[in-house]
Automatic annotation (TrEMBL):
Recorded domain comment: The N-terminal region contains the highly conserved SGGXDS motif, predicted to be a P-loop motif involved in ATP binding.
Subcellular location as annotated: Cytoplasm
NCBIfam families: lysidine_TilS_N
EC number: 6.3.4.19
Organism: Streptomyces minutiscleroticus
Keyword ATP-binding: yes
GO molecular function: ATP binding; tRNA(Ile)-lysidine synthase activity
Domain tRNA(Ile)-lysidine/2-thiocytidine synthase N-terminal: residue ranges: 45-223
Designated name of the protein: tRNA(Ile)-lysidine synthase
Amino acids binding ATP: 50-55
Cross-referenced Gene3D superfamilies: 1.20.59.20, HUPs
PANTHER family in alphabetical order: TRNA(ILE)-LYSIDINE SYNTHASE-RELATED (PTHR43033:SF1)
Role description: Ligates lysine onto the cytidine present at position 34 of the AUA codon-specific tRNA(Ile) that contains the anticodon CAU, in an ATP-dependent manner. Cytidine is converted to lysidine, thus changing the amino acid specificity of the tRNA from methionine to isoleucine.
């Protein structure tokens, strides 16, 4: 008799991602003499685990599949220090991951700031810690337990911010420097992960922040999505996830167009020419402007649609207005038919 259907589903999702990692790092796995790869050259894949159902299911699937494919498997948990006893919970997660046979396994404590709000600050601190651990161990990939439900929430949050099609594209299956972050569960719902944990008798921790109405995503999860399903019927989550993929395909195409256009609208000194910018389709032009602002020092996470719209008016609605102040002390201004974006 085979494994529980939920267990089979999570293992298949992880197996596919591990095959991708092996293909991406095939040249690195060859021994110096060109022979078969050995353990020393096998890629290391880490799972980021909070102890919740999604990441524990992911950890269990990684522990099962990695040895069969010659992949080293480890884990990391991040202690955000936002709740009493968080250090004890992190130690318990390390114990559980080690019990699954993962190694190396470690806990990393971070200090969460305030910039961008509590959720964004925690996310920034978490990814910085994961990047550091991956670099230290030379990990080929870090697996994240985001599910289709998380994707749907991300799409709705992007829609509420009015941040454009890139925001609606949600989370990518592969992201980060060199494709470090992999999300095997984006096609699986949250209940599948929880059922997989129950079928394997894996203890899980339910983060109280996930039900705390003080957090936007928690309100959306507890109230927003259920209300949408009540009004529109079942299938909202699946539809939002499909929207994310379609939006990502469109956004990738527009980004590629903007990348090519960004060079064609500059003069010999590298300055942006307003007349050439004006001739571009708005969706492409705004991407060129956003990229130029980021290159000048504006933090990408603090650069919103309203900032780009203000810069765009220097091209499309020029009335002699002054410079536009952007995050990161960057200023955009029009000077003699050129658009100058630099730190003030």
């Amino acid at each position: 008799m085979g494994p529980h259907p939920a267990v089979a589903a999570i293992r298949l999702a992880v197996r596919r991602v591990l095959h991708d990692v092996l293909n991406d790092h095939a040249p690195e796995r060859l021994s110096p003499g060109g022979g078969p790869p050995g353990r020393a050259t096998a890629p290391l894949v880490l799972v980021a685990c909070s102890g919740g159902a999604d990441s524990m299911a992911l950890a269990s699937a990684l522990a099962f599949e990695a040895p069969k494919l010659g992949v080293r498997a480890g884990g990391v948990t991040v202690d955000h220090g936002l709740q009493p006893g968080s250090d004890l919970r992190a130690a318990e997660v390390v114990h559980r991951l080690t019990g699954l046979g993962l190694g190396p396994v470690e806990s990393v404590a971070v200090s969460v700031g305030r910039e961008g709000g509590p959720e964004a600050a925690a996310r920034d601190a978490r990814y910085a810690a994961l990047d550091a651990v991956a670099e230290r161990h030379g990990a080929a990939a870090v697996l994240l337990g985001h599910t289709r439900d998380d994707q749907a929430e991300t799409v709705l949050l992007g829609l509420a911010r009015g941040s454009g099609i890139r925001s609606l594209s949600g989370m990518a299956e592969v992201s980060g420097s060199g494709g470090r972050y992999r999300r095997p569960f984006l096609q699986l719902d949250r209940q599948t992960a929880r059922k997989a944990c129950m079928a394997q008798s894996l203890p899980v921790w339910d983060d109280p922040h996930n039900a705390d109405p003080a957090y936007t995503r928690s309100r959306l999860r507890q109230e927003g999505l259920p209300a949408l399903e009540k009004a529109l019927g079942k299938g909202v989550v699946e539809a939002l996830a499909r929207t994310a993929q379609l939006s990502r395909d469109d956004a990738d195409a527009l980004d590629a167009w903007a990348s090519r256009a960004g060079e064609s609208v500059r003069d010999d000194s590298g300055l942006l020419e307003c007349t050439k910018l004006f001739a571009l389709p708005p969706a492409v032009r705004r991407r060129v402007l956003r990229r130029a602002a980021i290159e000048a020092g504006a933090p990408a996470g603090s650069l919103f649609a309203r900032h780009i719209e203000e810069i765009d008016r220097l091209i499309t609605g020029w009335r002699g207005q002054g410079g536009i102040n952007l995050p990161g002390k960057v200023v955009a201004q029009r000077q003699g038919g050129k658009l100058v974006i630099r730190q003030g």
